[in-house]
TrEMBL record:
This is Protein ENHANCED DISEASE RESISTANCE 2 isoform X1. Residues 132-173, 436-484 are annotated as: Disordered. InterPro entries: EDR2-like (IPR045096), EDR2_C (IPR009769), PH-like_dom_sf (IPR011993), PH_domain (IPR001849), START-like_dom_sf (IPR023393), START_lipid-bd_dom (IPR002913). It comes from Camelina sativa (False flax). PROSITE patterns: PH_DOMAIN, START. The keyword Endoplasmic reticulum applies. Residues 442-461 have a biased composition (Acidic residues). The keyword Endoplasmic reticulum applies. It is found in: Endoplasmic reticulum. Keywords: Endoplasmic reticulum. Residues 3-110 form the PH domain.
Length: 717
C-alpha cells in the first residue's frame, strides 16, 4: 500500500439533478499519486467510492462558501486541467481543514511537476500581483483568471508552474478600501469618489479600540455623503476563527454584535459573493427614530499572507425591497480586514479593522449629526465584542450558520397592519421552515453519489442517470400519514403560540460526529430517526404509568397501521402528578441498528445509553442556568421503567426519583407558563461503528398551562 500523505473525514458536496445540494461525510485519503474517498475508514484492500490520479496537470480550485440549509461549508474542487469533467469536490465545516487539504494536495502536485522538468529546467511560479489588474485579487474563486493558461499551454510553455486560480474579484460596485490606491487610480476615480482613502486621524479610544475618522480633501461634503470611520483592535484568536464568526448570522452574533437584530441570506451569487439582508438594532431614541435595515452585497477573500478581507456595499434586490416600518439605510462602503500578528505568550493575535461609511437616511441622519455618529460608534464596537467573546469562551470553529431569506418582496405585502416587525415575521417563517426541512447535515448516502453530482459552474443540469437515493440504514421514511394521530396537547407551528408543541429542528442539538473517537468533535444532529406524531398532557392523583395501554392513544393507532412507536412518558411528581407523553413513530426497526439493539436490549444496556439533551430557548436566566444544555444519561440520573410491547417501547421517566432533578423541577414548574423548552432523545453511541449519533426525535413545548392537563382513562391490559 502506498504511503499516505494525508487522510481524514471531510464532506462530499454536490448537487442533485433536481438542483438541491447534498453533503455526505466521507473518509478522504491522499497518496503520492492518488486522491480517493471511502464511505468508512478503509481497511485492507477496501475499494474506494471514487479515485483520482494526481499529476502535474491537476489543479485545486477554491469555490469558497456554499450554503446548505443554512449551514455553510468551505468547498474545494480537485480536477485535471486536461480532463476537467473528472473532478472530486470536497468541503469542510471550518476553513482550517479546507486550507490544510488544499496545501497538502498542492504540495503533491508540485512534487509531480518538479519530477517532470526536462533537461534540468526549473518551473517558474506564476502568481498574481495586486498591480496587474485592479479588478482582480489574489484570492480564489470559481472562475479562472484571464491570466490562466489555455489548455494546450503545457506544450508551448513548459516553464509554467501550477497556477493559483484567481477569481473575478469583488463586484465592480464594491470598493476595496483595504488597498492603497496610487495617484493614477485616485485620479481615475475622482469623478465617483469625493475623497481619498489614504489619510485617517485618531478620533478617540473607546473600549480598547482606536476609532479613526477619515480626513477629507474636499472643501464641501454633501449631506448625503457621510464620513467613513473605522475601528482597529487586537483579538486573541486566529484569523480563521474570527472570519468564521463574522460570516455567521445566527444566534451567536447576538453575543458580540450589539447592533445586530436579524440577518439572512437573500441570494448566494457564488462562493465568495452573496446578497444579505441585515436589520440594525440602534438604541438612539428608539421611540421616535424608526429602525434601519440594509440590503447589501458581501464579498470575501483570503490573501496569501493568511489575512481575510470582507467587503460590503448596498445593493437593491427584487426579493428584498423596502419594508414597512423601516428606513432603508445606504451602505456606501464597509467591511472587515483581518490580519495576523505575531503570537504573544503562545497565544495567537489578530488585528481586526472594521470600516463603515453609511448614510442612515431619514430626518435624523440629515439634521442630527449626533445620531449618525452615535450609531456608527455602536456598530464599530462589534470589534470590542469580538475581542471579549474570544477571551471569555473556549468555543472555536463553530459551524457557520446563516438563515435563508424568504421572498421579502411578497412577504412584505402580507404584514399585518398592527405593525408587527419584519424580522419577527421572517425569523418565525425561517424557524417554521426549518422544522419542515429537517435536513440531515451529515448523510451516509449511497456509494454512487458522484453519479448525480452537477458541476457548480454549469447553469443547466446535465442529463444523468436516474436518481436513486438510497436511505441510511436508520433513516425514517416520510410517507407516514400523520393526520390520523392526535393528542390532547395541540400542535402549533407559530413561534409565539402558547400551550402547544411542535417538532424541534434537529440541527439545534449537537451530537457525537463520525470522528468523535479521535477529535471529540460534535456536529449538528440533523434528521430524526422517528417522527413525533402526538403529545399528551395528563394529570392524576397518583403517578401515571404505562400510558401506551390507553385505548385510542397514538401508540395503539400506530400498531393498527403496522408501525413501530416509542413512547416517552416524562413523569412530574407533586401533590398532583403530571405526565407529558411523547409518541415517536417509524415504519419498522432496522435489524442490527443501534436503535433496534436499544429497543430489544436489557434494562442495563438501555440505562447506559438513553440520553437527553435539554434546551431552554426562552426563560429566566436562573432557569436556563439550572437546566443547562449538557447531555444527560437518563438511566443513570433518574429511574427509568421500560415496557416492551409487541409494537412499541414505553419509557417511563420518573423525575422525582432524583433529589437534584426534583429541585430543578420545583424551580421550573412554578414558571412553566413562561418557558419554551426543547428536548432531544437519542441513544448514545460508544463505538466507531455506532457513530455518528442520531436523534430518536426532538420536541419543543411552549408556555404550558397546568390547567390544560386532563385525567387519562387507563384501561388494564
Amino acid at each position: 500500500m502506498s504511503k499516505v500523505v494525508y487522510e481524514g473525514w471531510m464532506v462530499r458536496y454536490g448537487r442533485r439533478k433536481i438542483g438541491r445540494s447534498y453533503i455526505h461525510m466521507r473518509y478522504f485519503v491522499l497518496e503520492p499519486r492518488l486522491l480517493a474517498y471511502y464511505k468508512k475508514k478503509p481497511q485492507d484492500y477496501q475499494v474506494p467510492i471514487k479515485t483520482m490520479l494526481i499529476d502535474g496537470n491537476c489543479r485545486v480550485e477554491d469555490r469558497g462558501l456554499k450554503t446548505h440549509h443554512g449551514h455553510m461549508v468551505y468547498v474545494l474542487s480537485v480536477y485535471n486541467k486536461k480532463e476537467k469533467s473528472h473532478r472530486i469536490t470536497m468541503a469542510a465545516f471550518n476553513i482550517q481543514e479546507a486550507l490544510m487539504w488544499k496545501e497538502k494536495i498542492e504540495s503533491v502536485i508540485d512534487q509531480h511537476q518538479e519530477s517532470q522538468v526536462p533537461n534540468g529546467q526549473q518551473y517558474v511560479s506564476f502568481e498574481y500581483k495586486s498591480g496587474m489588474d485592479t479588478g482582480r485579487t489574489a484570492s480564489s474563486s470559481e472562475h479562472e483568471s484571464q491570466y490562466s493558461a489555455p489548455e494546450d499551454e503545457e506544450d508551448s510553455r513548459r516553464s509554467l508552474m501550477r497556477r493559483t486560480t484567481i477569481g473575478n474579484g469583488p463586484p465592480e460596485s464594491v470598493l476595496d478600501w483595504t488597498k492603497e490606491f496610487d495617484a493614477e487610480l485616485a485620479n481615475q476615480n475622482s469623478n465617483n469618489q469625493a475623497f481619498s482613502r489614504k489619510h485617517w486621524r485618531l478620533l478617540q479610544c473607546q473600549n480598547g479600540l482606536r476609532i479613526f475618522e477619515e480626513l477629507l480633501e474636499v472643501d464641501y461634503l454633501p449631506r448625503s455623503c457621510s464620513r467613513a470611520m473605522k475601528a482597529v483592535g487586537v483579538v486573541e484568536a486566529t484569523c480563521e476563527d474570527i472570519f468564521e464568526l463574522l460570516m455567521s448570522m445566527d444566534g451567536t452574533r447576538y453575543e458580540w454584535d450589539c447592533s445586530f437584530q436579524y440577518g439572512s441570506l437573500v441570494e448566494e451569487v457564488d462562493g465568495h459573493t452573496a446578497v444579505l439582508y441585515h436589520r440594525l438594532l440602534l438604541d438612539w431614541f428608539p421611540m421616535i427614530v424608526w429602525p434601519r435595515d440594509l440590503c447589501y452585497v458581501r464579498y470575501w477573500r483570503r490573501n496569501d499572507d493568511g489575512s481575510y478581507v470582507v467587503l460590503f456595499r448596498s445593493r437593491e434586490h427584487e426579493n428584498c425591497g423596502p419594508q414597512p416600518g423601516c428606513v432603508r439605510a445606504h451602505l456606501e462602503s464597509g467591511g472587515y480586514n483581518i490580519s495576523p500578528l505575531k503570537p504573544r505568550n503562545g497565544r495567537p493575535r489578530t488585528q481586526v479593522q472594521h470600516l463603515i461609511q453609511i448614510d442612515l437616511k431619514g430626518w435624523g441622519a440629515g439634521y442630527l449629526p449626533a445620531f449618525q455618529q452615535h450609531c456608527l460608534l455602536q456598530m464599530l464596537n462589534s470589534v470590542a465584542g469580538l475581542r471579549e467573546w474570544f477571551s471569555q469562551t473556549d468555543e472555536r470553529g463553530l459551524p457557520t450558520r446563516i438563515p435563508v431569506m424568504v421572498n421579502m418582496a411578497s412577504s412584505s405585502l402580507s404584514l399585518s397592519k398592527s405593525g408587527k416587525s419584519l424580522h419577527q415575521s421572517a425569523f418565525s417563517l425561517d424557524q417554521t421552515n426549518s422544522v419542515n426541512r429537517n435536513s440531515v447535515l451529515m448523510d451516509e448516502d449511497s456509494d454512487d453519489d458522484d453519479e448525480f453530482q452537477i458541476a457548480e459552474s454549469e447553469q443547466e443540469p446535465e442529463t444523468s442517470k436516474t436518481e436513486n437515493d438510497v436511505k441510511r440504514p436508520e433513516e425514517p421514511a416520510h410517507d407516514i400519514d400523520l393526520s390520523c394521530f392526535s393528542g390532547n396537547l395541540k400542535r402549533n407551528e407559530n413561534e409565539n403560540a402558547r400551550n402547544c408543541w411542535r417538532t424541534s429542528d434537529g440541527n439545534n442539538f449537537k451530537v457525537r460526529g463520525k470522528s468523535f473517537g479521535g477529535d471529540k468533535r460534535k456536529i449538528p444532529a440533523g434528521k430524526h430517526l422517528m417522527d413525533l406524531v402526538a403529545v399528551d398532557w395528563f394529570k392524576d392523583s397518583k403517578r401515571i404509568d404505562h400510558v401506551a395501554r390507553r385505548k385510542g392513544c397514538a401508540a395503539q393507532v400506530a400498531a393498527e397501521k403496522g408501525l413501530f412507536s416509542m413512547v416517552v412518558n416524562v413523569q412530574v411528581p407533586g401533590s398532583t402528578h403530571y405526565s407529558m407523553v411523547f409518541y415517536f413513530v417509524m415504519k419498522e426497526l432496522v435489524p442490527g441498528s443501534l436503535l433496534q439493539r436499544f429497543v430489544d436490549g436489557d434494562d442495563e444496556f438501555r440505562n447506559s445509553r438513553l440520553k437527553l439533551i435539554p434546551l431552554v430557548p426562552k426563560g429566566s436566566w436562573i432557569v436556563r442556568q439550572s437546566v443547562g444544555s449538557t447531555p444527560c444519561l437518563l438511566g443513570k440520573a433518574v429511574d427509568c421503567n421500560y415496557i416492551r410491547g409487541p409494537t412499541y417501547l414505553e419509557i417511563d421517566i420518573d423525575i422525582g426519583s432524583s433529589t437534584v432533578a426534583n429541585g430543578v423541577l420545583g424551580l421550573v414548574i412554578g414558571v412553566i407558563t413562561s418557558l419554551v423548552v426543547e428536548m432531544a432523545f437519542l441513544v448514545q453511541a460508544n463505538t466507531p461503528e455506532e457513530l455518528p449519533e442520531r436523534l430518536i426525535g426532538a420536541v419543543r413545548v411552549s408556555h404550558i398551562e397546568l390547567s390544560s392537563a386532563i385525567v387519562p382513562n387507563l384501561e388494564s391490559e
